[in-house]
């Protein structure tokens, strides 16, 4: 199983750098230090570029923390955006999706996907991307994602992030798909 970078970083943070270093020194006595990057190599996109899609549920075999799940949902979102673009603009520019975070609240089957949409090397404004995907019915978006959405493409995610998981917690994580 390959885990996303944000899951690994979170697990290491919970475990503690001091405990990690002690374990490494115990098993590899010559190690003096491990470099820990202070900033991600790719800056996080502005919150105005981010979208959130909330799925009612996912399959029991889907591991939200795995790169496989992230890549699968990126592909499905890209298919949904391609359909929306074909219907609305009668064109196809090859939009790509980069999932930044996946999360599930304790006791809830709903799964939140936070992502940005790219057109080549340019990140689409969140309003533009949200309006494009919102042209599809919830049923059609669910068809492409294989799971029914509670929220198709919400733009203002900052208040939800603060209330669901501690303000900025998801925004401070490293980009998931750059490591998958």
UniProtKB/TrEMBL annotation:
Lineage top rank: taxon: Eukaryota
Q: Which organism is it from?
A: Cyprinus carpio carpio
**By its UniProt entry, which Pfam families does this protein fall under?**
KIAA1549
Return the protein name: KIAA1549-like b
């Amino acid at each position: 199983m390959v885990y996303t970078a944000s899951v690994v970083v979170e697990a290491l943070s919970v475990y503690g750098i001091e405990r990690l270093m002690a374990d490494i020194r115990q098993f590899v006595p010559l190690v003096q230090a491990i470099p820990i990057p202070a900033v991600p190599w790719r800056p996080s996109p502005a919150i105005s570029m981010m979208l959130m899609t909330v799925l009612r549920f996912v399959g029991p075999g889907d591991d939200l923390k795995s790169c496989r799940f992230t890549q699968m949902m990126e592909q499905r979102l890209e298919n949904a955006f391609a359909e929306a673009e074909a219907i609305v603009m009668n064109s196809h520019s090859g939009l790509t999706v980069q999932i930044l975070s996946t999360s599930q609240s304790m006791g809830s089957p709903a799964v939140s996907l936070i992502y940005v949409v790219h057109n080549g090397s340019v990140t689409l404004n969140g309003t533009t991307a949200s309006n494009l995907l919102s042209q599809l019915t919830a049923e059609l978006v669910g068809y492409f994602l294989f799971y029914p959405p509670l929220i198709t493409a919400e733009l203002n995610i900052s208040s939800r992030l603060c209330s669901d998981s501690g303000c900025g917690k998801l925004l401070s994580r490293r980009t998931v798909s750059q490591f998958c």
